[in-house]
Design a protein that fits this description.
One of its GO terms (molecular function) is cysteine-tRNA ligase activity. Monomer. It catalyses: tRNA(Cys) + L-cysteine + ATP = L-cysteinyl-tRNA(Cys) + AMP + diphosphate. This protein is of the alpha/beta class. The protein has 3 domains: 257 residues, Rossmann fold, CATH 3.40.50; 138 residues, Orthogonal Bundle (Isoleucyl-tRNA Synthetase, Domain 1), CATH 1.10.730; 79 residues, no CATH class. It contains 16 helices and 16 strands. The longest helix has 22 residues. The chain is globular, with a radius of gyration of 26 Å.
Length: 492
């Protein structure tokens, strides 16, 4: 099955296939590591993770490259203010990013490319552009892309820049240039600023040249897909196209994917609004990483997503429902045989799930048949109309679901422990909810002992003690579920 994805460049749904018939070559803009990633950043990264997983599920292998921007104006400024080299300044944020990346269960790209490790490739690209007459050196030693050399500029964002005059800004920098429309490729060194001695002079790369150089280094001069947040479409991605295609005279990327950012309670997320959240902020409030993952991908990537805590609570309930059902199936005890009704329900759910993913990565439509199958199967199990072969068929559907959404296995304890360790180290324990602190103080062994004591209390008809234990556990975020098969417990 071929996945059809909206192509920003063509303005239509296009089949997403490898040009060489092998792995789909895909470049995704990664983080700029001057601070901790916020949930808007991670919505983009998660949607790209969903895409690569969906492609693999549908039979298309992926060669995924993601960059790390570890040098830019903001990083240089912040490092200087902190009185440290940029490498020392950025490394903790790089480490934190990959911790959060792992907490949200994202698959690591096949290639991670750090900007500071690819300076020679950037310099070579500037030299190539200079030879084409598309780059020039300013009096201060900086190099610029001559925008008028690329008449197709604006073809991605569909902006008409033909009437733009000198003095209008399409890029922000502090260096002199021939035209205000031109953008920086290489910025001449300033006193005390991080820089490199190169064949084009001492300085540092402009932001846009970084992605072009790294994408072509690992994927070739022309590749299948370029992805990123919608805020990068202009001018960053437009500039990438201009400089890359002027250097190679080939189409840079055949397909462009842009993920819409999110709102928080209907407003733009910002620190000044008091609605700015990192992953760590949410973990310290007691939310599970798996629920955050599910919430951030619940709305398709091309739709505006309004993040709310009610929505996060709904995602938490959805994860619990999925896991409870999964455990019920794995517990077994089903009679031999099969039900034609349940076999058809499983087949239909699997087909509709895959079709929704193939239709522009529609995560909302993909979830719907899975939860409908859960409802129908639970009813059938309760009525004794679900058999061993049906359970196996349904588990296969859940395996498909989890290959992309990845929330069934409970691996939430470690992200929470890491967030608490970070909060303690950073002096932010005041942000941790009392319930989360209480829950972390209770080990799995301690829970099992209390569950056993409660069972014993119920056998001796000491219901007051049994209720007291249930309430104590609930206060510490542990939910008990009594069933005919015994008592199950889970952390909130």
């Amino acid at each position: 099955m071929t996945l059809r994805l909206f192509n920003t460049l063509t303005g239509q749904l296009d089949p997403l296939t490898p040009a060489d018939g092998m792995a789909l070559r895909m470049y995704a803009c990664g983080p700029t590591v001057y601070d901790y990633g916020h949930i808007g950043n991670f919505r983009t990264f998660l949607q790209i993770d969903i895409l690569r997983r969906a492609l693999q599920l549908l039979g298309t292998p992926v060669r995924h490259v993601m960059n790390i921007t570890d040098v830019d104006d903001k990083i240089i400024r912040n490092a200087a203010q902190a009185g440290m080299p940029i490498g020392d300044y950025t490394q903790p944020y790089i480490d934190a990013f990959f911790e959060d990346f792992e907490s949200l269960r994202m698959e690591r790209p096949e290639q991670i490319a750090r900007a500071t490790e690819h300076i020679p490739q950037m310099v070579a690209l500037v030299e190539k552009l200079a030879a084409e007459g598309a780059a020039y050196k300013a009096e201060d030693g900086s190099w610029y892309f001559r925008l008028k050399s690329f008449p197709e500029y604006g073809k991605l964002s569909k902006k008409d820049l033909s009437g733009m005059e000198d003095g209008a800004r399409v890029d922000v920098d502090e260096y002199e240039k021939d035209s205000a429309r031109d953008f920086a490729l290489w910025k001449a060194a300033k006193p005390g600023e991080t820089s490199w001695e190169t064949a084009i002079g001492r300085g540092r790369p402009g932001w846009h040249i970084e992605c072009s150089a790294m994408a072509m280094e690992y994927l070739g001069e022309s590749f299948d897909l370029h992805a990123g947040g919608e805020d990068l479409m202009f001018p960053h991605h437009e500039n990438e196209i201009a400089q890359s295609e002027m250097a190679t005279h080939k189409q840079f990327a055949r397909h462009w994917m842009h993920v819409r950012f999110l709102l928080v309670d209907g407003r733009k997320m910002s620190k000044s609004e008091g609605n700015f959240y990192t992953l760590r902020d949410l973990l310290l409030k007691g939310y599970k990483a798996s629920a955050i993952r599910l919430a951030l991908v619940s709305v398709p990537y091309r739709h505006q997503f309004n993040f709310t805590f009610d929505g996060l609570a709904e995602a938490t309930s959805a994860v619990d429902r999925l896991r409870t059902f999964h455990e019920r199936l794995k517990a077994g005890g089903f009679a031999p045989g099969e039900s034609s009704q349940m076999q058809e329900a499983a087949r239909k759910a699997k087909a509709e799930y895959r079709e929704a993913l193939a239709d522009d990565l529609n995560t909302a439509e993909a979830r719907a048949p899975i939860f409908e199958l859960i409802r129908a199967a639970n009813t059938a199990i309760d009525q004794g109309e679900c058999f061993a072969a049906d359970s196996e068929a349904i588990l296969e559907v859940l395996k498909d679901f989890d290959a992309v959404f990845d929330v069934l296995e409970d691996r939430d304890a470690e992200p929470t422990r890491r967030a608490l360790a970070w909060a303690e180290k950073s002096g932010r324990m005041n942000e941790v909810t009392p319930e989360l602190i209480a829950a972390q103080s209770l080990t799995d062994e301690g829970i099992e002992m209390l569950v056993a004591e409660r069972s014993a209390a119920k056998k001796t008809r000491n219901f007051a003690r049994a209720d007291q234990i249930r309430n104590e556990l609930a206060e510490k975020g542990v939910i008990l579920e009594d069933s005919k098969d015994g008592v199950r417990w889970k952390r909130k």
